[in-house]
Each structure stands twice: as structure tokens, then as C-alpha cells.
């Protein structure tokens, strides 16, 4: 007997994913009783973001990106973003990086790559590429899908992306091109544009070199928002996983950018694993915080606290049972829609496998899921077979229960270690 039977939902029904070309982006309610610190954060954010009038209209539909979920290849797909939005109303979500060439060469199949449900707003499209013509065309084609921002990848260290002079983090070595690329992207969209980058590449890792990159890109384009992964990247063959572990974090570089570029907006990324640590960064003046793997591996423990702890909103009180019932509606609406049985049960259910992390029954739930992937044809049957492993007390516990863990002192004394102030040499910086 499925555990959803006779259960009364307190939320509206899910909009099926086949309604994917968005004409009127959804607006979240702004009537939230913020505490003083949250009010200050929101006001401070909008004071720091310089947007064109039409861009501000788009951005102001939602609360600012004080907390965002990082773009992660093969992870932050439609399925994960659907689950993430069911848990948090206000976290900003990023797509996986999508190559501009893929968008251009798949014009007859764009729904598969660019489509998403209106429930996902605010959502940012991240694109990558190294050819201006394709970046322009890809941005133009993406306009029909009404993303809330277009982000350009200058931070991925994967050899498949950054190798062979391609794109990703290697583009940090060519800031003049990045400025041109951002101008092209901005010229083909009416939403804000941003850059995600590292603090350096290989031996090009000084604070002044990072500042030269920021100065050139922002001077040569309308880019006013940078997401800074506070590690440099090593392109000597180490894996992307090692690139997230071996280069040391230098949060002092990020906070120095706030000092030296007061007209720009910066989001901090790297090594932040909970809302406690995100709040620690915000208290020290960060404009916004981006979290990656913690939001994927521990979605309930991380995203479940974002709306209350970061944005000051009252708890929705939603339970995992309610979330899974809505996800069942979504999953059964998309199974097999791409043909050849894709997406299949395993692909659609993949983000759910972390939903019961550290809870009673989690191990048995995963074993049952592995078995169910072999023969279940619907999400309904998948849940009927697997959720018997999870106690009702877990399924019915409201969101954001308990106190989130994390290092409150992660950014302690960071301002004591800032590098010397940057002095831009305009002619050399812009035309070198």
C-alpha cells in the first residue's frame, strides 16, 4: 500500500513539465515578514547591483540571490531543480553548464535542453563556449525560455572543458575575450548577465591578476555580477574533484574584491557547506553565497533551512511526504517523454536518493530503490515499493526542524588578511 494514500496535501497541484516554454514567469510573493538582518541584506543587495531598468524589473520579481545552488554537471538537471524548488521557495537555482554549440546545433530539440517548469523560478542558465557567434545565437535562442539570468562559465577546470584551449577556467587567461563574450551575451538578452570564475589559474594566481580580470571584464562589458570560487584552478591534469580539494581556499581574495570594486556585486563560492556557514559569510559582508555539493548531497538539511535562516521567511511546514507526492506527479509526467524510455525511473529518482540522509531507514530505502530501478515503470510504483523503508515519523516531520550545523567561525578575522588594495592601470589592464 502506497504511503501517500488518503494523505491530504496542503499545497497546490504540480504543473506538468510538458508546459515548458514560459511566457509569463511566475512571481513569488514578496509579503514575507523579514527580520531586521534580512531586510538589511535585501536592501544592501539591491544597492550593490547596478542593472538596466528592464533588468531590474526582471530581477525584482524575486528575492535577491543571497543563497544560490551552484551549477553542477550531471547533477543540477531538471529533476534536481524540481526537487530543490519543492524544498526552498527562494534559493536561486542554476542549470548545468550547457555548451553554446549544443544550443545552436540542437535548435530542433531545444525543449530537451532548455525547457523547465515555471515552478523553478528564479533559475539561471549557465552557458559555456569560446566562439562569439555561437554565444550570441545560443543566448538569442534561450530567450524564449525566460531564464532570470545568463551566467558565463569561466571556472570549470575539467579537462574536457578547459583543455585544448577550449573554454571554462582557461578563459580567465584571456579577459579581453571574456569581456567581448559578455558584451555579445548581454546584447542578445534582456536579463542580467554574470560570470562564474575562480581566483586564478596555475601560476596566474596573484590578487592583482584576479583584479585585472575583474576590471577588464567589467570595463569591456555590462557585467556587474561575478560568482567567485575562492580557489584557483590547476590545469596540470588533476581531476575536477582534486581541483575542489587541493588548491587552498583564499576567502580573503573575495572580501578584498568587495573593498576594491564597490560598484560590482560578488557571490562567494567554495567550501561553504551549510546555511550556518552561508550566514557567516553574509555577516562579514558577502553579497551572496553559492553552495554546491552540500545542497545536492544533503538537500533536506541544507535547502530546508534556506528560506527561514537566510531569507527570514516563516517555515512552510511542508513534509517529505508532501514533497514526494508532488514529485510523483512531476516524475510520472516526464518519464519517457524524450523517447527510447528516457528519462527513465533511475534518472528521475536520482535526486531523491539523498532526501533521507542520516535518517532511520535510509540504508534500506536505497537498497529497495536499487532493486526497484530494475522493473518499476512509474514513480507511483517506485514509491509503493520503496517508501515502506522510511518511518512515518520521518516522512511527516516538517521542514527545517532542528538546528542546522556548521562552522560559525569559518570567516572569522578574514578582514585581517586582505591583500593590499588594487590599483588599476587602466591602459595596461584594458588592452594587454
From TrEMBL:
Protein known as: DUS-like FMN-binding domain-containing protein
UniProt-listed InterPro entries: Aldolase_TIM, DUS-like_FMN-bd, DusA
Taxonomy of the source species: Eukaryota, Viridiplantae, Streptophyta, Embryophyta, Tracheophyta
Endpoints of the signal sequence: none
Keywords linked to the UniProt accession: NADP, RNA-binding, tRNA-binding
tRNA-binding listed as a keyword: yes
Domain (DUS-like FMN-binding): residue spans on this chain: 69-378
Domain of life: Eukaryota
GO MF term set: tRNA binding; tRNA dihydrouridine synthase activity
SUPFAM superfamilies xrefs: FMN-linked oxidoreductases
Source organism of this protein record: Gossypium raimondii
PANTHER family associated with the record: FMN-LINKED OXIDOREDUCTASES SUPERFAMILY PROTEIN
A Pfam family that the UniProt record links to this protein: Dus
Amino acid at each position: 500500500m502506497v504511503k501517500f494514500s488518503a494523505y491530504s496535501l496542503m499545497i497546490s497541484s504540480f504543473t506538468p513539465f510538458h508546459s515548458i516554454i514560459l511566457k509569463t514567469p511566475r512571481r513569488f510573493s514578496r509579503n514575507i515578514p523579514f527580520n531586521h538582518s534580512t531586510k538589511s541584506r535585501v536592501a544592501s543587495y539591491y544597492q550593490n547591483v547596478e542593472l538596466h531598468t528592464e533588468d531590474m524589473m526582471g530581477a525584482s520579481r524575486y528575492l535577491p540571490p543571497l543563497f544560490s545552488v551552484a551549477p553542477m554537471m550531471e547533477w543540477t538537471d531538471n529533476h534536481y531543480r524540481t526537487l530543490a524548488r519543492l524544498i526552498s521557495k527562494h534559493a536561486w537555482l542554476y542549470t548545468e553548464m550547457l555548451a553554446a554549440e549544443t544550443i545552436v546545433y540542437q535548435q530542433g530539440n531545444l525543449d530537451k535542453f532548455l525547457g523547465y517548469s515555471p515552478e523553478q523560478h528564479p533559475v539561471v542558465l549557465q552557458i559555456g563556449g569560446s566562439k562569439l557567434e555561437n554565444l550570441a545565437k545560443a543566448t538569442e535562442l534561450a530567450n524564449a525560455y525566460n531564464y532570470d539570468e545568463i551566467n558565463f562559465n569561466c571556472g570549470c577546470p575539467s579537462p574536457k572543458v578547459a583543455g585544448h584551449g577550449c573554454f571554462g577556467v582557461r578563459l580567465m587567461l584571456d579577459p579581453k575575450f571574456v569581456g567581448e563574450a559578455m558584451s555579445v551575451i548581454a546584447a542578445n538578452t534582456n536579463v542580467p548577465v554574470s560570470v562564474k570564475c575562480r581566483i586564478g589559474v596555475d601560476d596566474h594566481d596573484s590578487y592583482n591578476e584576479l583584479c585585472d580580470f575583474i576590471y577588464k571584464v567589467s570595463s569591456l562589458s555590462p557585467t556587474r555580477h561575478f560568482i567567485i570560487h575562492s580557489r584557483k584552478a590547476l590545469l596540470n591534469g588533476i581531476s575536477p574533484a582534486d581541483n575542489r580539494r587541493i588548491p587552498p581556499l583564499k576567502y580573503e581574495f573575495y572580501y578584498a574584491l568587495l573593498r576594491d570594486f564597490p560598484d560590482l556585486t560578488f557571490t562567494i563560492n567554495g567550501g561553504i557547506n551549510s546555511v550556518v556557514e552561508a550566514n557567516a559569510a553574509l555577516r562579514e559582508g558577502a553579497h551572496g553565497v553559492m553552495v554546491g555539493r552540500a545542497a545536492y548531497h544533503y538537500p533536506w538539511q541544507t535547502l530546508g533551512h534556506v528560506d527561514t535562516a537566510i531569507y527570514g521567511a516563516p517555515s512552510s511546514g511542508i513534509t517529505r511526504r508532501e514533497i514526494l507526492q508532488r514529485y510523483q506527479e512531476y516524475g510520472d509526467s516526464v518519464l519517457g517523454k524524450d523517447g527510447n524510455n528516457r528519462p527513465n525511473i533511475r534518472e528521475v529518482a536520482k535526486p531523491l536518493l539523498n532526501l533521507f540522509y542520516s535518517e532511520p531507514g535510509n540504508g534500506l530505502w536505497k537498497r529497495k530503490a536499487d532493486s526497484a530501478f530494475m522493473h518499476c515503470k512509474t514513480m507511483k510504483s517506485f514509491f509503493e515499493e520503496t517508501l515502506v523503508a522510511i518511518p512515518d515519523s520521518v516522512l511527516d516531520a516538517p521542514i527545517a526542524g532542528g538546528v542546522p550545523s556548521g562552522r560559525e567561525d569559518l570567516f572569522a578575522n578574514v578582514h585581517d588578511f586582505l591583500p593590499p588594495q588594487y590599483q588599476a592601470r587602466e591602459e595596461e589592464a584594458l588592452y594587454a
